[in-house]
Amino acid sequence: MINISFNSSPDAIICLNSILPKKSVFSKFPNIPIIAADGATNQLMKKGIIPNFIVGDLDSCKNKYINSIPVNNLIHIPEQDTNDFEKNINFAQNQNWKKILIFGFHGGELEHTLNNWSIIKKYSTKLQLLIFESKRYCFPLGKGEYSISTKDNEIISLIPQCKAILTTIGLKWELSNEELQLGVREGARNRAIKDKIQIHIHSGEILLFLDSRIPLFY
Predict the structure, then answer these.
(1) Is the N-terminal amide bond of 215 cis, ω within 30° of 0?
(2) What domains appear along the chain, each with residue ranges and CATH number?
(3) pLDDT, tens only, 202-217
(4) Quick one: which of 140, 106, 150 has its CA closest to 208?
(5) Model pTM?
């Protein structure tokens, strides 16, 4: 069984061009490189945060901000086959950064957000990806047995990607070798009734949602 414990730090933070956390959240991650997806630079700079790298086609970042970044840290990728999120993921992977914390995941327009979900699924077996949104964490889990420390009555959501068969221990509404499938049955808004829950994913993959453990990474 894999024990998921939040006791480490991310290798890097990717900031997408959507609603980003307050500056106080960033201050909890000293010396962690920040990668800005193009237009996210504008928001970061307004908060007084200077990203270490700007990655993308650079068509949304204001020139006054671009000029404050060393030219070697401007990663211009003009091709349009991938969106800025995937460009940032690829850049992080090329730096051998495996544990990536993601801010601003909701891409503004719905299709951007859905596209970002697809990218999470695409890279879920290659990198450890952790989304922070509205004081909640979300991360993908594939086939296997997991143990996770939780708080009493903590809201736990298990969303299939796109189908999974699970058994759980320690949740208010348990699953016993049961199937979750998008468009059929999801596992949203369950609750932990123990200080440690177990999730056995017999097949498929899920997105696990729980309260954030800022500044810790799993």
Answers:
(1) yes
(2) 2-133 (3.40.50.10240), 139-211 (2.60.120.320)
(3) 999 999 999 999 999 9
(4) 140
(5) 0.93
